[in-house]
C-alpha cells in the first residue's frame, strides 16, 4: 500500500485546486477517526479518504468516469477493498454499490466534511474551533444551507453503527485537529 508521504505527494502533484486538496485532507482526517472508533485499518482508511478524489479535476465534467479513473490511477497503490470503496463513493454513476463499513464511511465522510466546513465559515471568526456539534446538526436540518450537500449521504453513518450526532461529533473533532492545515 502507498505510504503516507507518497500519497500526500500524489495529492500535491495531481490536484491544483487548494479547496479540493483541503477537502481530501478533511476526508482523510475523518476516515482516520472513524477507523479508530470502529477498530478498522487506520492506514487504509486514511489513504482512501485522502485519495478518493485524486481524479476529480480530470473527471469533473464526466461523472461517469469520476472514481473509476481514481481507481485506475491507484490500481497498484491501494488494496482492492480500498479501490472498491473509492468507486462506491460515486455509486450513483458507477456500478459499484456500497457494501461494507469502509464504503459507507467514505460516502458519509465525503459529505459531512463539506457541511462542517460550511458551518465553520459562517461562524463569527470563520474557524473550526468555533463550530459545535449542535450548530452542525441545525445546519444539517436547514436544507437551504449548503444546498449541494446531500444529507442522505451523511446518513450512511448509520450503516457503520453511528448515529448522526455521534458521527458529526467524531468528524468535527477530526477536522479541528487539522484546522491549521485546512486554513480554518
UniProtKB/TrEMBL annotation:
> Could you name the domain of life of the organism this protein comes from?
Archaea
Q: Which Pfam families match?
A: HD (PF01966)
Matches recorded under PANTHER family: METAL DEPENDENT PHOSPHOHYDROLASE (PTHR38659:SF1), METAL-DEPENDENT PHOSPHOHYDROLASE (PTHR38659)
Which protein is depicted?
Answer: Putative HD superfamily hydrolase
Instruction: State the PROSITE patterns in the record.
Output: HD (PS51831)
Its keywords, alphabetically, are: Hydrolase
GO MF annotations in UniProt: hydrolase activity
Residue stretches making up the HD domain: 20-115
Q: Does the keyword Hydrolase apply?
A: yes
Amino acid at each position: 500500500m502507498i505510504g503516507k508521504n507518497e500519497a500526500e505527494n500524489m495529492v500535491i502533484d495531481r490536484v491544483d485546486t487548494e479547496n479540493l486538496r483541503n477537502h481530501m485532507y478533511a476526508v482523510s482526517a475523518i476516515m482516520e477517526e472513524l477507523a479508530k472508533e470502529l477498530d478498522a485499518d487506520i492506514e487504509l482508511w486514511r489513504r482512501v479518504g485522502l485519495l478518493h478524489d485524486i481524479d476529480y479535476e480530470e473527471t469533473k465534467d464526466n461523472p461517469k468516469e469520476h472514481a473509476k479513473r481514481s481507481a485506475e490511477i491507484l490500481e497498484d497503490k491501494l488494496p482492492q477493498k480500498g479501490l472498491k470503496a473509492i468507486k462506491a463513493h460515486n455509486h450513483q454513476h458507477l456500478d459499484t454499490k456500497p457494501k461494507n463499513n469502509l464504503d459507507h464511511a467514505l460516502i458519509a465522510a465525503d459529505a459531512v466534511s463539506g457541511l462542517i466546513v460550511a458551518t465553520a465559515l459562517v461562524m463569527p471568526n470563520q474557524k473550526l474551533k468555533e463550530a459545535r456539534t449542535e450548530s452542525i446538526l441545525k445546519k444539517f436540518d436547514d436544507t437551504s444551507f449548503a444546498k449541494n450537500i446531500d444529507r442522505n449521504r451523511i446518513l450512511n453513518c448509520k450503516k457503520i453503527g453511528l448515529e448522526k450526532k455521534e458521527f458529526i461529533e467524531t468528524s468535527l473533532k477530526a477536522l479541528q485537529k487539522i484546522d491549521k492545515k485546512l486554513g480554518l
